[in-house]
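User: Hello, can you help with two protein structures?

Assistant: Certainly.
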Amino acid sequence: MDSDGNIKQVVDTENDDQFPSFFGKPFQQMGGSQNKWNPFRKKSGLMAVMHAQTKKNRVVSKHGRINTFSRSEEAHESHRLLKDFFTTLIDLSWSWTLLSFAASFYISWLLFAVVWYLVVYTNGDLDVDKPENHTVCVDNIVDFTSCFLYSLETQHTIGYGGRAVTEQCPVAIIVMSFQSIVGVVIQACMAGIVFAKFTKPTGRAETLMFSKNALITLRNGAFYLVVRLADLRPTHLIECHVSGHFMAEEATDEGETNPYHLASMSFGSELDGTVDYIQPFWPLVVSHKIDDSSPLYQMSPRDFQSKQFEIIVTLEGVTPETGCSVQVRTSYLPSEILWGQRFEHTTVAYDKDMAKYAVSYRTLNNFVQDRTPRCSAKDFEERSGRKSTNISKSPSSNSLLTP
């Protein structure tokens, strides 16, 4: 942020030429031109431009993604991710997951192929001139290729019948038992990782919608910031709660400046902005009351054109299908907050023929202009207070009492 409290845009020049590593950190380009072909880079075009605009100058994109990255000098901390190895594998992209899935099997096959080769080599099974009474450890092993094939067959219990361990070689029996255990462990781990990735509620969050704009309107004599949200699935989330945060630069009386301070904002489904628990049967309007505890209390429409801040709205719930928690968020910049508007309540209507409520998501972003005063909530309360005070002090015109 600059001295006026405006959030400056940080141009990420190095993140565009990097692709995620095994631990989710970017690999550095190894010299040469920065225009090297990268299969992991997002494609350019109109959609890429629109995607970049949704992240421009904001912490949370309109689609809920956190617009942060780690610089290259922080790469030395990547070893900490090994302490949470299972979660690290779950967070990998599907391309890296499938690659690690295949690599774990190929590496195990290759390592045990080397072990089997050493076993048969030390036992003399590969010698050209073997004694007549010589007993091999594994039948039909003639070279390293056959050792690799036997390693694969043993680990996955394929059993073609061409190669088998003999009972005269205890070392081979021990190696076969150990490889069978290792194979089961690898399959169990990789199956658990793939299942966990399938059950991640990332895709479920795509069916939760927020209105493109937040509105400021007057309700029952108080200012409110309102947002509309909806759940597209007929099996709605359970235990839904909504919350908000206000990000802006804050300074203390002692001179401490926090350029990216996150202050909590309460949102609720009631008209007065209370009760953060919601039931998303149809598109709902959640509101934040702009009172003396709100960061928007002293802001007028003109301040929305000069100041820089970001309002982050978060919806949390549980999917009834899997019981997994879902968290989806969006954000609103000052240019996306409209003053003196309210949402049209046309998203739900009762259909007499079907005897059901018809829900429409096409009108999720529809709003109309109202007569909200173009002043801050603080000024409005002061004017309303002075007006009520003057009325209470004025003599009654129809009083029949005389001094």
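That covers the first. Now for the second protein you mentioned:
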Amino acid sequence: LPLTSGYKASCWEVHLHFNNLARLLQCVLVLSILHWAVILADIISSPTCSADTNTCELMSSSSSTPVVLQTAPFGFPWKTFDPFLFCVYHDDKYPEGNEDMGPAASLKGRDIGQDFARKDGWNMYHGEVVPGFPQHPHRGFETVTIVRKGFVDHSDSVGATARFGNGDTQWLTAGKGIVHCEMFPLVHRDKKNPLELFQIWLNLPSKNKMVDPYFSMLWKETLPVLHHKDEAGRETRVEVIAGDIADKRALPPPPDSWASRPEASVAIWTLRLDPGAHFTLPAGPKDVHRTLYFFAGSGVTVGGQSVPLNSLARLQPDVDARIVNGGDQVAELLMLQGRPIGEPVAQRGPFVMNTQQELQQAFMDYQRTRFGGWPFESDAPTHKREETRFARHPDGRIERAEPAPPGSIY
């Protein structure tokens, strides 16, 4: 049908082509349909503007769910979302160790006992001889300590002790109260001692805040790892601390952990993507919080959106999230996921409860009982330099990730 002026052709023009009245009426009907179709198309493709936000969005006849809900730069500590309380990332470039397993370097200019300035790329933290955190209490939550490089010497008020690192994870339920220390022994005298770790605080529901303390060791040799290659052969490596992905299921968390409940859908993964690699995080449950933390690399997109280095990306949890490493370096990310506990959080320092009254009680209990007392001579005990990776549990049971060295007392 030739239209001399688009969809606005007049019926008289159509009549020149058709002598039959019925055909003319048919043409009128067709032109009316075309006319309203064009109007509707204009409406669909027009931007709609909000006076409140002074922004416009293009409407679409088929809406798509965004993958990234929010991005934000890291703070200290990293911001997390229920059921997580926070995450800290330590990346210390320690020098060679001295005879006491402290840094073989001058400590001049450091605020010893409170050293967080990253002078020369490393901190002493609260340590005076060996870097780390001498004895301190916790109640009402869990710590998940993922040590990627270096070592941690652990000791606590229920008689447990350990050395772990270079890929190991310790999962500690503080429960009704524990005092522990975490020291970073610089065991190598002939080379540098880099330390890299995450410590993640995972909340406990109110019914589990007063359970007995407990810890699990997740040795690196036993951690499930997913190796995925894209069509170009570029690899993504996913280490599964909690949760499951594909056919990889994490080792059991402590029995009273929020993560021990299948309906909580807690997942803690570290991801490593080769340059140019891409990987799709599979969709999870709708009612969980899922967050990616991009901490190493040069260029990553998630769901088509660029995520800057040293930034978090909150994800829509129930859609697939395609991650592309568009940079020329290996990209590394941490993923935290979990269904919110949804209870009030009252926190003061190392205690996390539900009410201010419970917090006050926690301080009173600690002052009265010291959560079992401190059975070690030093506030910051460490193991012998030669000691290998092991754990001694409160019941005396000993786990070894490596053979004991000669003369070991464990």
